[in-house]
Amino acid sequence: MTLIKDKQIIDDPWCYLSDGHALKASHTIIDPDFWHQNKRSLSGASSPLGLMIPGDQELAELANDLTYFSLIAIHIPTFVDGRAYSLAKLLRERYHYKGEVRAVGDVLPDQAHYLTRVGFDALEFTDHPSASLALKKLSELSVCYQPG
Amino acid sequence: MYLYDQLDQTLINERVEQFRDQTNRYLSGKLTEEQFRPLRLMNGLYIQTHAPMLRVNIPYGLLSSKQLHALAHIAQHYDKGYGHFTTRQNIQFNWPKLEQVPDILAELASVQMHAIQSSGNCIRNITCDPLAGVCADEIEDPRPYCEIIRQWATLHPEFSYLPRKFKFAVSGSPKDRAATQVHDIGLHIKKNDAGQIGFEVLVGGGLGRTPVIGQTIADFIAEEDILSYAEAILRTYNRFGRRDNKYKARIKILVRETGLDKFTQQVNSEWQAIREGSLKLSQDEIQRVKRFFAPLAYQTIDNDNALIQDLGNSGSFRQWFIQNTLTHKQTGYQVVFVSLKSPHRAPGDINSEQMSGLAELADQYSFGQIRTTHDQNLALTDVRRADLYPLWQQLSKLDLATANIGTITDMICCPGLDFCSLANASSIDIAQGITDRFTHSAIDTGKISLKMSGCMNGCGHHSIGEIGILGVDKKGEQWYQLTLGGSDSHQSKLGDRLGKAIAKDAVVDAIDDIVQVYKANRVDNENFANTLQRIGLQPFKDKVYDAD
Ligand code: SF4
User: Whole-number mean pLDDT of chain B?
Assistant: First the structure.
């Protein structure tokens, strides 16, 4: 995996609990089930915590919990599934979420520009060439019609 | 008409280069077909039976003569010398080469045109009343609003990967000439008691496999709120629309499965949160766009003598005048429909020579503007009545003066099996058969809307034709399902099935039977719909099926 954060390729400090990493490790991304089951013990943790949500996540259910997370990853099962775009927009504008919002899953370099415009500041790509291409694609369109 | 400024031009120029890169990556194997597909579709490029097909947007059906010249050049240079106008006011080229498409787009960009979002699961070209700005019954010209919505929808970062395609239509008159009830969102301009301009908003209409008439979701949305309201609908649809089955992915299914009440609540709660945000339109912006559509510089004309004389002199001109022209709101002017349903070409087709010729006529007689209609015809909407005769003569030379607007030979027809890879059956040869049969009796038969699609997707709008023809596949053979009584007027209505499907070689006879029953039963000048309503389907069934 290669990560773009704030329009640069960087080493990813985060890991996924689902990959078998121990929770103790700092910067772990968990899923909503795990969060709900372990909320009490996790909410006191001092190391940064991330949450990966699916495209059909009801954000209202998480509204009060967002402060516990330094990162929200939205899973995109296939690149033609546009739900993540609305979720990111809502996270930023409705819930004023200031942490990292990361696109994870089937993401094309050609989509990097729109993804960043709706509020994603981090994009995961399968390999370095895709990520470098995505960086180039970020500056393809210099203007847009939509405000904000 | 709207003219691009620096921002508009930069955007489409950059989009051309973006697409050029995508095409090159595909051709060099760096993008898979699966990855390229949605990207090319979002830019109007299909892969069809024989070749790619490129659909070019004509925003709300308005073209300048310069743009029509450019389309003529593209048809000549990159295609087989002709183009095809669609029911959504766009034009399609059926034979471009994939590797040349970026060059075509660059040529289009040089005349302020593009193919952005003319297909794909995104917001498509906004359509409107072809008589916008020239009809007497208009509350307000819909075109400035179409342009405002077009800009908001173009390359929208959030709504480019919707569950399915999404179509808007806007009507500015009580008489709906934009088929707003069969669009994902239909907007009717109205004024409230305070004289404020706004829209009645319809949602969830559409043709295709499951034709549905749109329902009113809001009685009055003020003009300054129209973008935030549209955004609320789109966001609700993007989040909750079905993605598991493409036949259930249109917003009409979401509205049906959620229920209009609950759907309305979802939209309203979203809207309340964004209503006062950055999408709120200022009067400055509305007025800025409206200025592009200011009334044309009409002359004051107080005598009609020339026309009266011309009408007295030529019977064929008189026939064309009655059939193909309409009264203009400005005294001394007339709206002229340019029929693309000549017996010599497939419905909606036009060749390069005709395009260039028509562009010149537009410059000479109609302020250099041309409209496209959702009946696959064109219109010169601002012609002085005294100029009608010479215009008619020149249109005749171009084979663009077939006097058949609104008649049975002015049919709507999709490309069908000849071009479209989804088709079950051909439509162009059936159209030809109907044209041959009715060319001489069309005017006498009166106004009948005949619409034909080569498959359930319904690009030819068969379900709202007074006579609808749908191509179906029966064990590899082409059959046709007939429906009667559909309507796309203010009260849209879906046609009723006449009976079992009909074999290809019997379709024209069946249509003839239907017309005979109508003619035998009509009282005075009763139109087809009224006769059908009065006598019911049965006499038509009897005639069509007993004749077998
Ligand atoms: S109705 Fe069917 S056959 Fe005709 S153009 Fe549409 S998809 Fe193709």
Answer: 94
Within 8 A of B160 by CB-CB distance, chain A residues are 82, 85, 114
The answer to whether the Cα torsion of B253, B257, B262, B265 is positive or negative is: negative
| CATH 3.40.718.10 applies to domain B127-292 | no
At the top level of CATH, the class of B6-110 is: alpha beta
Calculate mean pLDDT across residues B257-261: 97
Confidence (pLDDT) at A56: 95
Q: Which residues line ligand 1 (CB under 6 A)?
A: B 414-416, 420, 422-423, 453-455, 457-460
Task: Indicate the residue of A82, A89, A144 with minimum beta-carbon distance to B161.
Answer: A82
What pLDDT, in 10s, does the model give residues B37-93?
989 999 999 887 667 899 999 999 999 999 999 999 999 999 999 999 998 889 999
Q: Which regions of chain B carry the CATH code 3.30.413.10?
A: 127-292, 412-544
H or E stretch at A34: helix A32-43
Tell me which H or E stretch contains A93. helix A83-93
pLDDT at B547: 57
In ligand 1, which atom is closest to the CA atom of B425? Answer: 3
User: Among the CATH numbers 3.40.50.670, 3.30.2290.10, 3.20.20.70, 3.40.640.10, which is that of A2-132?
Assistant: 3.20.20.70
Least CB-CB distance to B152: which of A56, A114, A145?
A: A145
Chain A contact for B266, CB < 8 A? no
ipTM of the prediction greater than 0.90, yes or no: yes
Cβ of B238 within 8 Å of Cβ of A85? The answer is yes
Is the CB of A142 inside 8 Å of chain B's CB atoms?
Answer: yes
Contact A82 B273 (CB under 8 A): no
d(CA B455, CA B460): 9
Q: Is the pLDDT score of B261 beyond 60?
A: yes
Per-residue CA distances from B449 to A107, B60, B408, B489 (Å): 46, 22, 6, 11
CB contact under 8 Å between B35 and A79, yes or no, is: yes
pLDDT digits (tens, 9 = 90+) for A27-39: 899 999 999 999 9
Token digits for B58? 């004509």
Can you give the pLDDT at residue A22? 67
CATH ID of B305-397, from 3.90.480.20, 3.20.20.10, 3.40.50.2000, 2.60.40.1080:
3.90.480.20
Distances (CA, A) of B264 to A89, B225, B366: 21, 16, 44
pTM of whole model > 0.90?
A: yes
Higher pLDDT, B370 or B179: B370
